[in-house]
Structure formats: structure tokens, C-alpha cells
Amino acid sequence: MTRLATPLALLLALAAPFAHGADWQAGPNSRLGFTATYMGEAFEGRFARFSPAIAFDPANLAASRFDVRIELASASTDNEERDAMLVGPEFFNAGARPEARYVATAFRALGGGRFVAEGELTLNGVTKKVPLTFRWQPGTPTVLEGEATLARLAFKVGEGDWADTGLLPDEVKVRTRLELTAK
Q: pLDDT band for position 22 (50/70/90)?
């Protein structure tokens, strides 16, 4: 009986995260970054501090929810001058509005472990729809890897002289890779 009890216990333990809303906790190797271009040269950045609250069950999308809070002052591109400008009033305005927030409560399955979160991003006091396309890879850890494209000017990112899309295009790619364990 012990041989049967062990596989049964393992099966129940694996199914447990899906039984009650599938809450997940992000591990220390999780990351949230972005890619933009300045004068034709791409650069990458990341946020060192962000808090993802993830409730996701691929079998029950209606009960799923993402709520990600991003500390804008933690933005880094490994360039001191650019980083100081990014958190300043012309871009992220982290002094006046220290946090961005992404919330998704509607999801669509694309097949093959791919989904779209139909979420809203609030940044600089502006809230806009930003769909996040992501791949869900169950395992130890479970991995959520996603990408979204946003128009920075719609969120008042890069105002004044920086509104010139010839120098700094409007499109910014946001990428995330979360290593998740069940709560």
C-alpha cells in the first residue's frame, strides 16, 4: 500500500495549486525588463524591484488574475546618465508617481501553452490596455515568459524634447520571465 500511497500523494500535491485559484509566488531569478531604441541603437533595461501577484490556472482562466506592481525608481540600463533621466520627470517621473501597475483579469488561450492576458497598465497617471502574450511552462519551477509592446508617449514617457520619435521611437518592448512556485 505504501507504493500506491506515495504516487497518489505526489499526484495530489501536484494538483493542489490548481484546486484553489492557483496562486503562485515569484522566485528570486524572476525578471522584468524592457527594450527601446535611441538614435537607432537598441538598449535594454530592467526593474530590480517588482511584485507580481499571480493567480493562474490554464484550466480555469476565469479564476485567473495578474497584479504586478513595479517600483519605477529601480529601473536600470547600466548607464548612469540614462538611468537618472529615466526615473526623472520627463520619463517615469518616479518622484511624483513611484509605482506602475499591471492588472489583468481576462485571459485567452492561444494553444500550445500560450496565452494572452488582456490587462491594463497604469503608468504616469495614465491607464491603457496592454495585452501580454505569454507562454506557461509547468515544472519546477513553473515558468511564465511573456512580452508586450506599448506606446511610451501614450503613458507620457519621454515628454518635451524626448517626444521626437526620430530619436526615440514610440514603441517599447516589455519582457518578463517569472520563475514560479505554488503558494
A: confident
Report the alpha-carbon distance of residue 95 to residue 19 in Å, rounded.
41
pTM: 0.87
Residue 101: its pLDDT value, please?
98
Dihedral angle at the C-alpha atoms of 172, 98, 133, 22, nearest 10 degrees? 170
How many beta carbons lie within 10 A of that of residue 15, not counting itself?
9
Q: From CA 131, how far away is CA 116, in angstroms rounded?
A: 6
Taken as a whole, the chain contains a residue count of 183
Please report the DSSP string for 128-159 in residue order: EEEEEEEEEE-SSSEEEEEEEEEEGGGGT-S-
